[in-house]
Structure formats: C-alpha cells, structure tokens
Amino acid sequence: AVDSGPIFDTEPEQKVQNDYHYDVFAIKCQHPEQSEFVHETYLIEQDAHNVIIESVDMNSDSKQIDQNDEDADLAKERELLASLIKKLKCEIDESKNHNKFLETSNKVLIDKLKSEIKDFKNKNNSLELSNNQFKEANNKLSEENYFLYADFKKSQAELKRRDSIEYASEMELE
C-alpha cells in the first residue's frame, strides 16, 4: 500500500505503447496519407473487327493483403485498448482501496479527537470546580482575616489605653 498512486504519476509518457502511429491519448489511429489504391484495372482492347473488349483484372491477392494489414492493425489496437482498460481498472481498484483506507484512518482519527475533546472538557470542568472551591476558601480566609485584624486593632487600642496614665490612676482608685 506504500506505492498506491496511479501509474501515470510514476511512469513517464514515453513508456506508453505507441505502435503504428497510434495516439493513445486521442484514441485515433494515425496513418500517413496515401493516394487510394485502385484494385481493379480495366484494359481496353480492340480486336480485328474494331470491337472493344473490356477485361477486368481483379487483384484479389492485394485486397487480401490490405485486409490482413487492417485486421492486424485493428487487433493490435484492440490489444492496446484492452491493456489500457485493464491498467485503468487496476488503478481504479487501487484508488478505491486507498480511499477506503483513508476513510477508515479518518474515522479512527475523528474518534480519537472526540475522545481527546471529551477528556479536555472533563479536565476543564474539574479545574473550574477546583478554582471555584479555592475562591470560596479564599473568600472565607479573607473574611476571617478581616475579623482577626479588627480584633487585633481593638486589642492594640485596649493595650494602649491600659498603658496610659489615666488607666493606671483609675485602677488605683478602685
């Protein structure tokens, strides 16, 4: 499956069979132009009585050879077309197999990606929950810190008041 691309990507055009001036890409047979061969010749003869006799010389051997050449050319064209069709079918089958492989790979990757996204969402939710818990704990600590600081200030004021002379004289009077 490593070399699963179409053959025309790897084989240069020069390797394509190109016999008898056959243009594979135009699907036409190109023959050099010739004047049309005349198979029948008419001889005109005159006999002793001035009667014209026409005789037909039928060259059947030449017709048969030409027909055999045309049949051979057609047979080679058929073979070439059959070979090209076979190669195209192989390429199509390889392409279908490669596409199935790619579809399967894509499905696996999509499933893996969905799983990763689900894990990410779960971790994100867990982190958000932890963050909210830390915020609540921080708010409680801030509130407690505020009250402790207020108590500290009250205690500090009370100590300052007790250190004063007035406080000492009040205590002595009692």
TrEMBL record:
Residue runs in coiled coils: 85-144
Domain of life according to the entry: Eukaryota
Swiss-Prot/TrEMBL keywords: Coiled coil
Protein name: Uncharacterized protein
